[in-house]
Amino acid sequence: MRVLVTGAAGQIGYALVPMIARGVMLGADQPVILHMLDIPPAAEALNGVVATTDVVEACTGVNVAVMVGGFPRKEGMERKDVMSKNVSIYKAQASALEAHAAPNCKVLVVANPANTNALILKEFAPSIPERNVTCLTRLDHNRALGQISERLNVQVCDVKNVIIWGNHSSTQYPDVNHATVKTSSGEKPVRELVADDEWLNGEFITTVQQRGAAIIKARKLSSALSAASSACDHIRDWVLGTAEGTFVSMGVYSDGSYGVPAGLIYSFPVTCSGGEWKIVQGLPIDELSRKKMDATAQELSEEKALAYSCLE
Ligand SMILES: NC(=O)C1=CN([C@@H]2O[C@H](COP(=O)(O)OP(=O)(O)OC[C@H]3O[C@@H](n4cnc5c(N)ncnc54)[C@H](O)[C@@H]3O)[C@@H](O)[C@H]2O)C=CC1
Ligand SMILES: O=C([O-])CC(=O)C(=O)O
């Protein structure tokens, strides 16, 4: 399989490329050909990892495109503050992917604002099926699993089915209402084991929402290794399938499920099989969740309008 990584000379790219090469993304038995794109000003770093600065060469024949290229936010910024720089890149690269990628190429947008960049890519590449354009919220999902595992002092692999709803931003809604933990006496609901709704409805949510900002504050750079690792998780589950009874969070094109306006790239709980994702249906939604799901949808509608105004 041919895998495109844009922004390959950057922080995330530097961590991501060797993970893909050693099979973390597509499995140990899957041969991969890496297409690594960056821009001419990254010339020095290019000597380290990057194969090309030609977008057409980079996109030609790729089966998987991991779009990391763009500008990261700095301390004190919201992710949408990098909007004007990044959406124009996604408009331009949409055309290159549409014209040159392999049919059925799977696209994962990582660069922020991730949902809105993905939406712009989708809208300017009309012949790429909408189900093939996704954005990364798996990092938030993994952060939520991590918070629960620390709180309960259990292994992170024993916690499952948290959900990130909505935008990869501080309005995202990390939801534990359907999450469980594997224990010696079977699977137990996270709410029952934590037994502290005040923490689950308060500090837990804000910690996950603000984790990206906390890392920037501490490191003066945004998360890179965890972002690369989550990008591998996202593509691996999409291509190779999710485990029975497990769902994961992916930013996908809304079909109106759960009352989320169609036409936004919104993070939903999904299962994957045969290379296709499917939104988990029928989960009961309580009043608090409804409000938080609507607030993050509202932000995405506003971002969409802002993105179009940046492209005028
Ligand atoms: N969705 C998520 O969970 C996360 C998203 N991010 C976002 O990922 C993006 C990349 O982050 P880092 O690797 O830390 O940034 P970075 O600045 O270290 O690397 C970005 C790379 O993209 C390159 N680039 C810029 N314009 C390009 C273009 N038109 N085509 C190809 N390459 C281009 C730059 O030269 C640079 O090498 C940022 O937007 C950041 O905010 C970061 C962490 C998590
Ligand atoms: O917060 C940022 O700007 C980088 C990012 O998306 C994350 O770490 O979740």
UniProtKB/TrEMBL annotation:
One Pfam family from the record: Ldh_1_N
Molecular function via GO: L-malate dehydrogenase (NAD+) activity
Gene3D superfamilies reported for this sequence: Lactate dehydrogenase/glycoside hydrolase, family 4, C-terminal (3.90.110.10), NAD(P)-binding Rossmann-like Domain (3.40.50.720)
Phylogenetic classification of the source organism: Eukaryota, Viridiplantae, Streptophyta, Embryophyta, Tracheophyta
EC numbers: 1.1.1.37
Annotated Lactate/malate dehydrogenase C-terminal domain residues: 137-305
Coiled coil: none
PANTHER family according to UniProt: MALATE DEHYDROGENASE
Domain Lactate/malate dehydrogenase N-terminal: 1-133
Residues forming the catalytic site: 168
Any one biological process term the GO annotation gives: tricarboxylic acid cycle
Family annotation (NCBIfam families): MalateDH-SF1, MDH_euk_cyt, PRK05442.1
Entry keywords, A to Z: NAD, Oxidoreductase, Tricarboxylic acid cycle
PROSITE patterns: MDH (PS00068)
Annotated binding of substrate, by residue: 73, 79, 112, 143
Organism: Dichanthelium oligosanthes
Catalysed reaction, written as an equation: (S)-malate + NAD(+) = oxaloacetate + NADH + H(+)
The family this protein is said to belong to: Belongs to the LDH/MDH superfamily. MDH type 2 family.
Top EC class of this enzyme: oxidoreductase
Protein name as it appears in the record: Malate dehydrogenase
Residues involved in NAD(+) binding: 7-13, 38, 86, 110-112
InterPro entries the UniProt entry points to: L-lactate/malate_DH, Lactate/malate_DH_C, Lactate/malate_DH_N, Lactate_DH/Glyco_Ohase_4_C, Malate_DH_AS, Malate_DH_NAD-dep_euk, Malate_DH_type2, NAD(P)-bd_dom_sf
